[in-house]
Every structure is written in structure tokens, then in C-alpha cells.
Amino acid sequence: MTHSPTRYTAPPTAHPPTLPAVPPQPAPPPSRRTALAEAAERLRHAATTEPGRLRVIGAALALLVVAFGAVAAVQTAERATAAGDVLHRSQPLSSDAAAVYRSLADANTMATSGYLAGLQEKAATRERYEADIRTAAAKLATAAANSAPGSPSAAIITELNELLPRYKGLVEAARANNRQGFPVGGAYLRAANDMMQKKMLPAAEELYRKENQRLDADYAKATSYPWAAIALGVAALAALGWAQRRLYLRTNRVLNHGLVAATAATAVVLLWLVVGHSVARAGLDDSRAHGVRSLNVLHEARIASLKARSDENLTLVSRGAVTKELEDGTVMDAYEWAFDQEIDKLAKALARADRLADDTAGRKPVQRANASMKAWRSRHELARGANDSGDYQKARDRVVGIGARDQSTAECFDNVDASLASALAHETDEFERAARAGAAATTGLPAGSAVLAVLGAAGAVLGIGRRLSEYR
Amino acid sequence: MRARRLRTGMRGWGGAGATAVVCVLVPVLALLLPRTHPHPAGDPAPGGRKAAHGTRVEAVACRDDEAHHRSLSPSDADGPTLAAIRARGHVTVGVDQDSYRWGYRNPNNPTGELEGFDIDLAHRIAEDILGDRNKVQFKAIPTNERISAVRSGRVDMVVRTMTITCDRLKDVAFSAPYFLTGQQVLAPKASRITGYDSSLAGRRICSAAGSTAHDRLSADRKNGRLPASADISTTVPNQLDCLVKLQLGEVDAVVTDSALAAGQAAQDPAVELKGRSFTKEFYGVAMKQGADDLVRRVNRILENYREDGGWKASYDKWLSATLGRDSSSAVPPTANYR
After folding, report:
1. pTM
2. How far off is chain A from B104, nearest CA to CA, in Å?
3. Which SMART domains match (chain B) (predicted)?
4. Across the interface, which of B106, B107, B238 has its CB nearest the CB of A187?
5. CA torsion sign, B126 to B128 to B131 to B132?
6. Which of B105, B138, B142 sits opposite A321 (nearest CB)?
7. Is residue B201 within 8 Å of residue B230, measured between CB atoms?
8. Contact at 8 Å (CB) between B157 and B85?
């Protein structure tokens, strides 16, 4: 691609450039008539005489080239804005919504872990719970600032803002009662978990979906071809070609410098437009295919792992207080059942993330998470066995993990969580690199196309003006 | 004393053999014949006497208010079930881990051992059969798995605030009753609710879904015993969830077994049992049908437990603080056998 259109507008020429850039004024009308009649007369004059025709052609060419430049500038500016939105607005907001979702699920997991550990609750678990609540509140504030009042997103955010303190109240009541040794603490924790799983997480998921829709819309805007500009560009080139052929046939002159320069400028803008946009589109598509899609699947995996961990904790907190009847009539612990569902979801999401990962750096953490998930499953079976055989203490140790020799599921969950966090960080980087490269491909295109189009139009006018001067 | 007198009475009226034969017919005939109520409602006659009286129709009709009189008479005799338990070296008992003062694992108890009235009884049974109160393996089972756990043999017995009912007698064998309870109202101390009466008008009442409490509330609201304006729409999966709702102010009162209500009151000094219990229900130890040696042995253990003060000591330790010393639950229920 060349950025030096001046080479074309200043061709080596024997004639020094002469200027009557302004077409000669027609003689003043003999009497005052209306402007309309005057214009009609001029048109008649233009259609019947060669200089008149030349004037019309020159004006039309200039108009076409300027229109092309203007439309190209507007359309590329629109796309650049949309690409910028993907990078700086909708993707970060989608990430924020994912962060709300994740911190809520994480808070619930930490609350249930802390409850189950009781007096052995680690300070880290408590701190992580508090940090999760803070993150959720902060990200909700960001999301609120970016949502239109009265929009569905705003309604969801309001709902979440209202539920969050109530949820926290239930968790604190659970904790206080548990410290007293009252089993009603477990009932409070179940109530908190119910509120989280049945109201808050679905709302957060909906918010995440809404933000992803916005991201999709920005992607669509940024990557759609600027067809209007391309069509105008092709039309301008065709018109310039036709005008030069007409001049050649009538005057036998091969080159009209002005028109050649106009053609060159138009061709450059058209080429720049198509190539620049294609590169941008490729970058954005890449950021979407390898970044956003992987990010979505990894978020999904992380949520599933967090829910599975909550359910695992609650199995031992509720101790059979809530059961679920399956379709075949067997009755099982509701949380044990939910754990099985979530760990299956986690396995599936990890398999998909593995397929989507496009390099070893991305695949490694996913595979680590997968290995930890398998270990988690088998350790969970041991804990379940201990609980079923009545050895509650052992089951709890296997889940909470007081010492390293407990071979606890806590260890596996932590590993899954850490691996997923690093996979998410990697894919976020991938996304940003690809999206940034895409957005950069159209840098300068709006301004460049505008400037070049003005130069091209000037060339066309000059070129036609030179022919016109021969009629004087 | 009273129990022994009644047993004597029963022997006088017919003998266990004949009674057993009649009772074997119960499950079969229960399916064939419509339910009949030969006795007028009111105080049931002592069960042993009635069963021995028995015309066939009388023996067939199991009524919930006398279902607790259908256990086998106590005996120390050995049998295949007891032999299997001795060979294994421990009794497996299905219990609750979440019922305060009944079967409960205190998170602050470093040994992590279960505690409560039901747990005491399970220890007593292990001590008597195996000579060591700790030779018992507890298995936590949810409420609605109590019957299947017994039938499948996953546990030898269930000691888990389980009410003796006719329905359940079709699936499992029960010991003699070991605790008298009944539905009772629980409400904040400051509340103007006085019991199961007109003071519940316009109040929101919580009960566990599918519980006898909820059935009773619906029936009583229809027949007018409960004011029609009482709102009984709040149901929860577990009775303890009602206490959460009560504390959060989402309901005004809770109706549940007085034994469990006492457990709830023990967790919150701001609530109390209101009025007297308005139904009569009996808890029993559930065992597998056909394990007659075990059922008879458990009944003998219960007899000793009542007489040597063990029962009373356990009641005083876990329940008297909330149920009261003069409650009708404060004395072990009279055992009558079929």
C-alpha cells in the first residue's frame, strides 16, 4: 500500500500548470429572471455545447470523488469507533459482568467453605469472601454507570444491588448461629445459597448475556464491509475512466494529468479502504474466535467449578436435610445431585476450552485444570463414601482439607480455580492483542481518505479546466 | 409398673400367639377391605386388650392413634438378626445430624461426635446388645429415606424422631413408643399468639412441605378449628427453615412436632412453645419387618431404659429446658404390645 499520492498528482510535465481552476462565468443574462429559469437555461446551454458538457462532467466527477471520500471517511470512522468500542467498552463491560457473576459464585463458595470448616475456617477464606462481595459491588457500580436508565440491564443491576446485602445478612446469620453451635445456621446458609443460586446467579448470568449481546453488536458494526463507500469508489473510478476515454476520443490526447491524478487518488483510497478494512476485520474476527469464545467457555467452566464446590460443601452442611427425587424414583441428596451436574458441566466446558485453545500457552492451563478436575472427582467419591458409611468426620476432612495428608478436594478445587484463572488471563491477552492489531489497521483511513478525495476532486476539476481553457 | 400390668392383662385376654396370627393378616386384609372405625373417636381402649378382643375387622383397621400399640412383646431371646449384629461387631443406626437436642453434630465439639436424645438411645441399644455403648455406627439419613434405609438393610434400625403410623407399619416394624409428642405452635415470646386457637387469625403459619403438620393445618382450616384467615401457604423443605423465616419476620408462627419445636426454641431465646400440643404422636425405633428377635430385644431395652431412669436422665439433659418438666412428653409413653 502506498501513502504517497503526491507522486501522482504532480506528474512530470512540459507545461507549467496553468490555472483557471474556476470555469469561466457565463455572460450576464439580458434581463432579470428567476433563479430557476436561469438554472434551466444554463442546463440547456450545458447540454448543447461541448464546454457546457465538459463543465457538467467535471462537476460530476469532482462530486463523485468527494462523495466517495466523504462516505469512506464516515464509514471507516464508524467502524473504527465500533472496533474501539469492542476493545475499550463492550469487551471490558462483558468482562465486568463476568466478574460480577464469578465473584458472586465465588463468594457463595467461600461462605459455604468457611461454614463447613467452622472453627477451622482459614482467614484467607474469609478475606476472599469479603473481597468477592466488594468486587461484585464495585463491578455492579461500573455496569450501572454504563447502562441506559430503564434498560433491562439497569433493572437487573437494581435487583442485584438489592439482593446483595440481603444475601450477606443471611451468610452472617449462618455464621453467628454456627458459632453458637445451632443447626439453624445451616438452614440460614441454605437460604443464602438458595437466594444465590435461584435469584442472584441467574440475574448475573442474564447481565453477562446482555453485555455479550452488546459486544456482538459492536463486533458486527466493526466488521461489516463499507459497501456504500466501495460502490461509490468503483463508480468514481469508472466515471473517471469513461471521462478520460471520451476526452481521448474527441481530442486525441492520451493523458490528462488532472484526471490521471484524480484516478490515482481514488484508486489509492479504494485500495486502502478494502485492504485496511480486511486486515481490521481479520484481526477482530481472530480476537473473537480465539479470545472472546475461549473467554466465554472458560468463564462457564469457572462458574461450574464454583457451583460444584458450593454444592460439595452444602452436602456436608445440610446433611441430608434436602433431598431430590429423580425421574426413576430414587431419592438422593439435593446437593449431591447438583454437584454431579456441575462437575459434568465443568468437564464439558474444559473439553471445549481445550479444543478452542490455539496455542500451547493457552492449552496448558486448561489441561492442568482438567487433570485437577479428574482428581477432584475421584477424591469426591472417597469423601462421599466416607459420608455414606457414617464417617462424617473423615468426609469433612476430605472436603475441607485440614492437613496435606487429607488428600482433600479443597486442594483440587484450588488447582482448578488457579489454572482457570491463568487460562483466562492468557485468553484476555490474546483477545487484546488481536483486537488492537485489528483496530490499528484502519488508523488514519478516515482522515487519509478525506484528504485524498479532496485532492482527487481537485485533480478532476483541474484536468477538465485545462480542456475547457482550449475553448476560449 | 403400668406396662407390666397391661401385659398381664393382655395375656389374660387371649395370648400372643393368637394375636400374632390375626396381625399377620393385617397387611393382606388392609388391601382388601375398606377402612372401618369400629371404635367411637375418643380415648382408645388399651391396645393389647383390643387386639385380643379382635373380631377380624377390628384387627384389620389400623388407626394412627393406636398404631403405637402394635409392636411385639419384649424378650431377651437370641435370633438371626442379633447374631448377625454380634458377628459384625457394631450396630448401624440411621440418625439425623441436624435436629438440635435429638441427633445433632455440634460444630464446636472437637470430637465431632453426635449428640442428643436419639443418640443416647442408640448408644444404650449398642451397650445392651454388644456390651459397649460405642459399638454403634451412625449413618446420617434424610427424612424421606428412613424407610428405604431400613428395608434395604443399609441400617439395622432408624432412631430419628420417626412417628409410628399405619402407613409406615406396612413397610417397617416399629418398637414400642419411646416418646410422646404432638403438633405444637411456636411463636416469638412477644407475640400475642396463645396457641393453636383463634389467636392465629390473620397470621402467617409456616410448616414443612408434606409434613403431618401441614396436612393437619389444611384439614383444620377447612373444618373451622383453625380460623379461615390464617395463612398457611408458607411451606419449606425442612422444619428448621421455618425458624429462619420466623426470625426474618416472614412468618408469625411455626407448627411442627413439639419435640422438634423444642429444638427450635432451644436455638433462639426469643421464641417459645405456645399452648399445649394439639395432636398425639409417638416416636418409635424402626426396624426391618421380620427381624422379630431384634424388635423384641429393643422393646426389652426400652423397658429397662424407662425403668432404670436412663430415659428420664436423657430427657432432663436434652429436652426439659424447652419442653418443660411437667409436659406430657416428660414421662415415657406407656408401652402396650399386640
Report:
1. 0.75
2. 8
3. PBPb
4. B238
5. positive
6. B142
7. yes
8. no
Distance from CA of B334 to the nearest CA of A (A): 31
Task: Enter the C-alpha cell of residue A111.
Answer: 461462605
A-B Cβ pairs (cutoff 8 Å, strict):
90
HSE, CB side, 13 Å, CA atoms: give it for residue B269. 1
For the sheet containing B231-236, what is the strand order?
Answer: B231-236, B204-208, B253-257, B183-188, B271-274
Do the Cβ atoms of B145 and A179 come within 8 Å?
Answer: no
Cα separations in angstroms, A51 against A20, A36, A250: 14, 21, 13
Contact at CB, A393 and B112, closer than 8 angstroms: yes
Nearest-angstrom CA–CA distance, B240 and A206: 32
**Chain A positions in Cβ-Cβ contact with residue B137 (cut-off 8 Å):** 389-390
User: How many angstroms separate the CA of residue B210 from the nearest CA in chain A?
Assistant: 13
Chain B residues whose CB is inside 8 A of the A186 CB are 98, 240
Domains of chain B: residue spans and CATH: 2-69 (no CATH), 80-181+282-330 (3.40.190.10), 183-274 (3.40.190.10)
pLDDT tens-digit series, residues A138-154: 999 998 988 888 888 89
Query: C-alpha grid cell for residue A33?
Result: 429572471
Q: pLDDT by residue (tens digit) across B84-130?
A: 999 999 999 999 887 899 998 887 777 778 899 999 999 999 999 99
- Shortest distance between the Cα of A323 and any Cα of chain B, in A, equals 7
What is the four-CA torsion angle of B103, B105, B111, B115, rounded to 10 degrees? -20
Residues of A in contact with B100 (CB under 8 A): 182-184
Assign residue A440 a region (left: φ > 0; alpha: ψ between -120 and 50; beta: otherwise): alpha
ipTM value > 0.90: no
